[in-house]
Amino acid sequence: MSKIDSNLLNELKIDDQQREDESRPSRKLWTALIVAAILLAIGAGGWWFLNAQPLTVQTASAVAPAAGASAGTVLQATGYITARRKATVSAQITGTLTEVLIEEGDVVKKGQVLARLEDSALKASLDTAEANASTAKAQIAQAEAQLSQAQADVRRLDTLVARGMVATQAAEQARTQASTYRAELNARRRAAEAALAQVRQAKVNFDYTVIRAPFAGVITEKAAQVGEIISPLSAGGGFTRTGVGTIVDMDSLEVDVDVNEAYIGQVKPDMPCESILDAYPDWKIPSHVIAIVPSADRGKATVKVRVALEQKDVRLVPDMGVRVSFLERKSESTSTSPQGVLVPAQAIVSRNGKQVVFVIAEGRAQQRIVTPASQEYSGMKRVPEGIQPADRVIVSPPETLADGARVEAAKD
């Protein structure tokens, strides 16, 4: 009986392997719970950290567009600065340069002496003409004296003839002599006039040796040096210069742009424009259309448009590249403002296929879906609705910025 009871007790005994196998599920459960708790704590800590550290962003204020303001850009075209008054200054005669008084960049006045030619031969011709004129003047005085004497002889002989003291023939001869002197005097006077004309011609030729500025402007090119021969005519293959230099009237600068003929119908005379030089992209020059040149370029399919610059200074240089924006002008009688507000174009971004703007409200970014107008106003776009004037919008929001995230405006 005692042996049987001992066997039964052995069967009821749990060995160590079985005890270990039964405890494994409970250990796995506790391990999973501990890992989940750790992850939850890390997530909560990360959420707290991100929300406790606001993101610094660039902001701008939404503004209401002004009433009657010009609308956005109708089209853009590129062109160059050109001068309506530009001349290569030359002499009217062929001669050797003895003085060149200009350099590139010099500002000259109208009539200012730019250069001089060798003038000894022309000076001698002028002196000769003046001497001939003096001789002709002296001969006139001689002829006048002879005529005066002859007229006195005629009067005296007429008195003697009346008294019968001399023959009539003597008086007739005196009158003939007086007529001869009168004709000679007239001839002397004509000769003197011819001599004076020669003096004037010699002076004109002599003045041609002095080259003057035809108008006020700036010297952009010096084309000749002292000792070179200059001529108004081109001497093929030789060393003759055809000009002393080039002068540009800076007050006549304007812009020539080529507009695609498919869009030329949108350009009108006196249309407002905005010109931006490639060299000074931050300088927006108010401009307007002068005229549309009635001629097309067949090769480029463009039409030239002349644009006047309403602001000018020393930065403007001929042949500079220019980008011209042709602006739409609204009627001045319109007193109502366009609907909506203007925001920087960089504030409008795409999220999930929609155009949105982030607005700062109570320290957090609020995402608002917008439908911006197509026109652009000097880097600003009009948002008809969804944004109010004076709202602070986030400029160039980062891709990671989410709706409701804590933000703060960057200090200027």
Secondary-structure element order, as H and E?
A: HHEEEEEEHHEEEEEEEEEEEEEEEEE
What structural class do you assign from the helix and strand content? alpha+beta
> How are the strands ordered across the major sheet?
2-11-14-13-12-15
Q: Name the beta content range.
A: 25-35%
- Total helices: the number is 4
Q: Low-confidence spans: pLDDT under 50, at least 5 residues?
A: 67-71, 331-335
Could you give the distance between the termini? 100 Å
Rg result: 50 Å
Q: Would you report the number of β strands?
A: 23
The gross shape turns out to be: rod-shaped
The percentage helix is 25-40%
Describe the largest sheet.
Answer: 6 strands, antiparallel, barrel
Protein traits:
412 residues, single chain, rod-shaped, 4-stranded antiparallel β-sheet, alpha+beta, 6-stranded antiparallel barrel, 23 strands
Molecular structure report:
The chain is an alpha+beta fold and 412 residues long. The protein has 4 helices and 23 strands. The chain has helices spanning 2-12, 16-52, 120-163, 168-207, and strands at residues 55-61, 73-83, 86-89, 95-100, 107-108, 113-117, 210-212, 217-222, 229-230, 245-248, 253-260, 272-277, 284-297, 302-309, 321-327, 341-344, 348-351, 354-361, 364-369, 376-377, 380-383, 392-395, 407-409. Strands 2-11-14-13-12-15 form a 6-stranded antiparallel beta barrel. Strands 3-10-8-5 form a 4-stranded antiparallel sheet, with no helix packed on it. α3 (120-163) runs antiparallel to α4. The radius of gyration is 50 Å and the shape is rod-shaped.
